[in-house]
Structure formats: structure tokens, C-alpha cells
Amino acid sequence: MVVTEGASDLPSNWGRWGEDDELGTLNLITDGARARAAAEVRSGRAVSLALPIQPAPIISGPFAPATTEGSPVQQLMVHTGPAAHATVDVMVVTNHHPRSTHLDALSHQSIDGRVYPGRLLGDSVSPAGVTHASTTAFAAGVVTRGVLLNLAADGPLPAGHAVTARDLGARRSRCSTRRGWRSGGRRPPSGWSATRPRRWWAGRPG
Q1: Which helix (H) or strand (E) holds 57?
Q2: Which residues contact 95 (CB under 8 A, 6 or more apart)?
Q3: Which is it for strands 119-120 and 114-115: parallel, antiparallel or unpaired?
Q4: Where would you tag: which of 28, 48, 96, 130 has the fewest CB atoms within 10 A of its CB?
């Protein structure tokens, strides 16, 4: 995707952490922020934000999913017969699929032929892979205090709804907690994945 329209009006962190940075605002999650997050743990309950995936068997192909209803994961089982000591598989994953939960690399989108934090797209991404701003930079994981703002508490957002700062502020005002915003993660569910319309990207809130 190439972003150009209105890009100059958007807030930018390009150059904020230097020309070689690959973390972006994850730089705000310092050791101190992680320690504060760990200190707030009470129950230890794990809550996944991932969408469930049912792999599709590779009968022929593999092929990229033709529709948003298709599984983003194609699986080929590899074994050596019924008496095998172990079984293994080969998977083909379409990461950028509306039913595939994933983290976008900072090189995923470009503006005027450049990717974060201002490098030429051709110098960062090629058919051979990504040499700058890939998700490899997130290999240590993302651990911080999370703030879940449920924008769909009153029902799924309508198609084409543009989530604005006013939406986030209104939902935040209904929360009982206010601390940790600078170094915490925010994830605003829209209720869109619960309905999964066939034309996912046409009118998706965001």
C-alpha cells in the first residue's frame, strides 16, 4: 500500500529516533515501562486478541486465498507412514489477510516511495526480503501495560466509520483507569471481525 493523500497532515515520528531506527514508538516501551507493567499484574490471566484460524489442506497449489473467507493458512502434512515416530507439516501463511492476526512491519507502508524512518522503499524491501524495518526488530516481543478500549461495547461500528481521537477519548472517559498511557499499548476493538463481511476492506472501520 502506498499512502499519499493527506499524508502531510498526519502526525509523524519519522526521524524521532534516528535514521536507522526500526522500532518506532516501541522505543517508548523501556525496561522501566515493562517493570511497571509487571508490577500491576494481579491474576495472571492470559487474554488472546488473536482470531482463530483453521488451516486449509493443500490439495493443489499452494495458491493465495482468493477471498476473505478463505483461510490465511494452508497446511501440508508430511509423514513417513502410519508407523512414523513423528509427524511434521509445511505451512504457507498469508500474513496480510483480514483473518490473520499479525504485526505489520514498519516497512509495510510507504509514503512517496519511502518507508520508516525515511529510507527509500527500494533500499529496504526487495523480492529477496526486507533489509530494514522488518518485524525482526520485534523479536524480543512486545511487553507492556495494555489498555483495551472496546469501541464496540454498544455493537459493531458501522461500515465506513472513521475512528477518531474523539471516539478513543469518549471510550477512555468511561474507563476506570487513566495511568500508563504514554508507554502502554492501546487496542481498540471495533466489532468488525465478529461479522466478517465478504468485502472486508470495503468500508472497514478504522
Answers
A1: strand 56-57
A2: 72, 102
A3: antiparallel
A4: 48
Q: Of 98, 91, 95, 86, which is closest to residue 76 (Cα–Cα)?
A: 91
How is residue 67 written as a grid cell?
477471498
Q: What are the cell numbers at 33? A: 515501562
161: amino acid identity, one letter? H
Cα–chain center distance at 155: 22
The total number of residues shown for the chain amounts to 206
Specify the 3-state DSSP secondary structure of 25.
helix
Separation between Cα atoms, residue 190 and residue 150, nearest integer Å: 7
Question: Beta 146-148 vs 185-187: how paired, if at all?
Answer: parallel
Report the pLDDT value the prediction gives residue 108, as an integer from 0 to 100. Answer: 93
Q: C-alpha grid cell for residue 166?
A: 474523539
Place of cell 497449489: 61
Q: What is the pLDDT of residue 157?
A: 84
Tell me which range, 45-49, 112-116, 197-201, is most confidently predicted by mean pLDDT. 112-116
Burial letters 22-35, b for 16+ CB under 10 A, else e:
bbbebeebeeebbe
Residue 89 has which C-alpha cell? 507439516
Predicted confidence (pLDDT) per residue in 164-202, tens digit: 888 888 887 776 555 444 445 555 555 455 444 444 444
Between vectors from CA 179 to CA 177 and to CA 181, what angle results, nearest 5°?
Answer: 110
